[in-house]
Amino acid sequence: QLPLVESGGGLVQPGGSLRLSCAASGFRLDYYAIGWFRQAPGKEREGVSCITFNGSSTAYADSVKGRFTISRDSAKMAVYLQMDSLKPEDGAIYYCAAGMGLHPLCVMRAASYNNWGQGTQVTVSS
User: Fold this and answer.
1) DSSP 1
2) Residue 119 Cα to chain centre, angstroms
3) Residue 89 in 3-state DSSP?
4) Which has the closest alpha carbon to 37: 90, 100, 104?
């Protein structure tokens, strides 16, 4: 298991923004694609976004396209999920996960990732 840590969650009003961070300790994060997933109470985990090991390719769920932006900073060994125009239905526990190695594309399929963080709570409410 590779230790991943998410941060940046919290309570925000509808229409607001948050930036989630995913960091690794003790290994090179830039050898892996990173996926962001979320799970709301009573719902299945869903893929939100992913980015390849070198940042050359990204993907987004239809529900977040145009509102969320994934990026990575190799120098800081971190991956970010900028979330704008948040809606109440975006509220969930958000997880980052590492996997897929040096594949030129990424997928938002949980089974493709074998290292997961503990999650960070995002609540969107007025």
Assistant:
1) -
2) 10
3) helix
4) 90
Sequence-ordered list of residues with C-beta below 8 angstroms from that of 75, at least 6 positions apart, any chain: none
Across the range 37-65, mean pLDDT stands at 97
| Residue 111 to residue 89: CA distance in whole angstroms | 24
Confidence check: pLDDT of 2 > 70: no
The position carrying tokens 């090991």 is 53
User: DSSP string spanning 35-78?
Assistant: EEEEE-TTS--EEEEEE-TTSS-EEE-TTTTTTEEEEEETTTTE
Q: Please say whether the beta carbons of 55 and 103 come within 8 A.
A: no
Q: Is 117 exposed, middle or buried (CB count within 10 Å of its CB: 0-12, 13-18, 19+)? A: buried
pLDDT for position 1 = 61
CA-based nearest residue to 5, from 73, 126, 97: 97
